[in-house]
Amino acid sequence: MRKDPDSGVGNSTMTGRASPPVTIRALGAGERAAIVRFFLDEMDDVALYWRFFRTMTPASVEAYVAQMRFGSGCAVFGAFIDDRLVGVAELSAIPGSEMCLENRPGRLSCAELGIAVSNRLRHQGVGRALLDYLLRHAWTHGLRRIQLSSLRDNRPMLALAARLGFKPLREESGEVIMQALRPAGSPHALPQSQTPAPETQPVRNCTAKTANLRCN
Fold it and tell me: Model pTM?
């Protein structure tokens, strides 16, 4: 594993069941165009609906990617085959959520994840490798719990989440909310910034599930 000096996370090459090998690394703000192309070229309308819980147009995809944050309580990872982006996973802060009362200024303990994989690479281990990598990043950086929301009919996502330790919390309007807790034997968390957020800065509820254009 090679360490990424910008993110503090290692790049990982995962063979799994995918061929050729899948490389996973952190994505940066300068790669927004590649993320837009991934959502529009690698996913069909059904896959986009499962990912965003609503019908997505090219304009709404671009708007979502434009407001994605890289750092500052959020992390974005990409899975690549050669130079082709074939999966995107996001880990986003959920300040103010009743399920995330541990969150404090300057310290994130609870977050929500979102994940999408190319239609052409389903059932080839890409999603599992990407989700497993994101979880290891989260536990190493001190998160204690992660939430995942999935439509009830997205059985592949629910099954994958269950295999990686997510447990159902509740259901509402056809949506299943699951959570994973940091394993007791996880590696010691990396130190987090103890600098409080400025008091004048409003708390923003940016999640991986839906686009919130106020969260730039």
Answer: 0.72
